[in-house]
Design goal:
alpha/beta, Aminopeptidase, eight-stranded mixed β-sheet, acyltransferase activity, lipid metabolism, EC 2.3.2.30, acyltransferase, ACT14924-like_Acyltransf_dom
Length: 585
């Protein structure tokens, strides 16, 4: 009789040269823990001697598992080069088999760092590098971890479950959660050219598993075989993030990197979800035809010379008012609509305009060579607007309830909004530089407006999870007292991410977290980054009902407290005179 035919699934397979009393005890444990039943299935379905792929397929088929998200996960696995894939560990065994099989179809070189308990299935041993997570002093752990590092360093793919143990009930979290992740995953993500793919498997074990595990933690290990068999007919959802390159991780502290990797895994949890409401704009009307360049040139030439703020080669930055340049404001509104449609923020009308265009100041870039508007900001001078129309004179009053203590009601401010750059200027340092030089030139000209405030629109092309992450990591509680959103973004942060943010400053890590969620790798919006550089404070996030339900992040900048190097860049040699003006106040 062949070795395959006589092979039995048993705890004995994990013990070398056991004495007969031990073997007797093991037989009793095999029966009590469900391993004997597993052995019967093993022989009934003729699984002995199968390849690791066929064995995994047969086990999944026997258990009649409904596995969802396979294709989406496979599409996120890099097909070559070093990659670390880390997952939560909700079941304690079957997820290792499932992920190994599915990822192995994309990466035949896949190795899995796994609990040595899975060694009872000899057909699967080629997948695994075994470790003993319950004993950090186990002498076999060191060589196993070195083998992982060598494998990834040589360009291989590695799957691991850094918690090292199955998820369990945690009283302090009032629910089922992962153990702290081992720092090895932080070490692995520091390997040159490595990519990291976070995975989250949705699901739980039986209630009895968690109840007994609270009595004594080692019982969980003993119950895993029964829990595997209890998964018959289960629906298992696989969720994976997009790969994040090694260069985006900070590697001075492997423990913090491991915590970040854990957070990125929980970001993928499909039970934590929110769907954007259906777009109000269901039909886009044709854009208005461009305004005749002769009309633009004539209006701009007629503006008072003091309203030209900047001149740089072919570009000029002006400010003006609708009554001075009605055709120019029409063209600005047309271009706003054109650009906003790219980000799912368009009104659907031929122009993006409202009655505030008549009362706000328009700051814009003009290409004098081509007679084109290249970008613009809409600025509200709050002292003048409040004097004329009260709070209804402020656009952002529709989005936020400003207490009397908020800056726009206490002293003159500039409310900034409706910013855009035409497509050929987007991503251009020059375009943003010209706009900010224009703003700073205006502030130097009228230094009473040292305070800027406004919103950064966060396109609904971002996932709601990303928007919540940006909101949670940028808004500090000390800046929220005097303002509240009229229409809030009613989506709570995942409890595990909230807990993680209490342990470390995630602001520096928001880049890789967003990259794991966004298919195009986008991070914090460019304009938000610009405000952050200027020393912005973030106050609240609201849904702009007048702007296709787009989230808007309210912030403020005190120009006097902005970094001097940036003031010098935008204001030139005038920056010191501006600071001296306020020093004397």
């Amino acid at each position: 009789m062949s070795e395959a035919a006589t092979y039995k699934i048993s705890i004995n397979n994990l013990i070398k040269d056991a004495a007969w009393p031990t073997r007797v005890i093991v037989r009793m444990l095999d029966k009590a823990l469900g391993i004997s039943r597993m052995n019967k299935l093993y022989h009934l379905h003729q699984m002995q001697g199968l390849s690791k792929e066929d064995f995994a397929d047969k086990l999944i088929d026997i258990l009649k598992l409904d596995i969802r998200g396979i294709q989406a996960l496979q599409e996120k696995i890099p097909t070559s080069g070093p990659v670390v894939i880390a997952s939560n560990h909700p079941f304690g065994g079957i997820e290792g088999v499932i992920l190994a099989r599915i990822i192995g179809q994309v990466r035949p070189d896949l190795q899995v760092l796994a609990n040595k308990g899975l060694g009872i299935f000899k057909e699967l041993r080629d997948y695994f590098i075994f470790t003993n997570p319950l004993s950090e002093k186990d002498p076999t752990n060191g060589p196993s971890l070195r083998k992982c590092i060598k494998h990834v360093g040589a360009g291989g793919a590695l799957l691991l479950f850094p918690a090292g143990r199955v998820s369990y009930y945690q009283a302090e979290k009032s629910g089922i959660s992962e153990h702290t992740w081992n720092k090895i995953v932080g070490r692995l993500t520091s390997i040159n050219n490595c990519q990291y793919v976070p995975v989250f498997v949705n699901g739980t074990n039986s209630k009895w598993f968690y109840r007994l595990g609270r009595v004594y933690y080692r019982i969980r290990m003993l119950l895993l075989a029964r829990e595997l068999l209890n998964k018959t007919g289960a629906v298992i959802n696989l969720n994976a993030g997009y790969p994040v390159e090694q260069k985006y991780f900070k590697h001075e502290n492997h423990v913090q990197s491991a915590d970040l990797c854990r957070g990125m895994s929980y970001l993928q949890d499909s039970s934590w979800s929110y769907n954007w409401p259906p777009d109000k704009v269901t039909h886009m009307k044709p854009l208005l035809s461009p305004v005749d360049t002769n009309l633009l040139q004539a209006e701009i030439d007629s503006l008072p010379i003091e309203q030209r703020l900047i001149e740089n080669k072919n570009y000029q930055v002006y400010y003006g008012y609708q009554h001075q340049m009605p055709n120019t404001v029409t063209e600005i509104a047309r271009l706003r609509e054109l650009v906003f449609r790219e980000f799912n923020e368009g009104s659907g009308e031929p122009l993006d305009t409202d009655h505030f265009d008549a009362t706000y100041t328009q700051l814009f870039i003009f290409n004098k060579k081509t007679c084109q508007i290249m970008g613009a900001y809409r600025m509200g001078l709050t002292d003048k607007l409040l004097e004329k129309d009260g709070m209804d004179g402020l656009y952002l009053h529709k989005m936020f309830d400003f207490a009397p203590e908020f800056m726009n009601r206490k002293f003159p401010c500039i409310e900034l909004g409706r910013s855009f750059l035409v497509p050929e200027f987007q991503g251009s340092f020059q375009g943003l530089l010209l706009l900010w030089k224009g703003i700073c030139a205006f502030v130097f000209k009228y230094p009473q407006y040292r305070m800027l405030y406004g919103t950064v629109s966060i396109s609904k092309l971002y996932q709601p999870k990303s928007v919540k992450l940006i909101e949670s990591l940028l808004i500090k509680s000390e800046y929220t007292d005097n303002v509240s959103p009229r229409d809030s973004f009613n989506f709570d942060l995942h409890s595990e991410i909230a807990s993680l943010s209490e342990q470390q400053d995630l602001f520096e890590n928001i880049g890789p977290m967003l990259m794991s969620l966004e298919h195009d790798g986008k991070g914090i919006p460019t304009l938000a980054k610009q405000y952050i550089k200027m020393g912005a404070k973030f106050h609240a996030l609201a849904i702009d009902k007048s702007f296709n339900d787009t989230p808007g992040l309210l912030l403020s900048v005190d120009m006097v407290k902005s970094p001097k190097r940036l003031l010098k860049l935008y204001m030139g040699d005038n920056f010191q005179e501006f600071l001296d003006y306020w020093q004397d106040k």
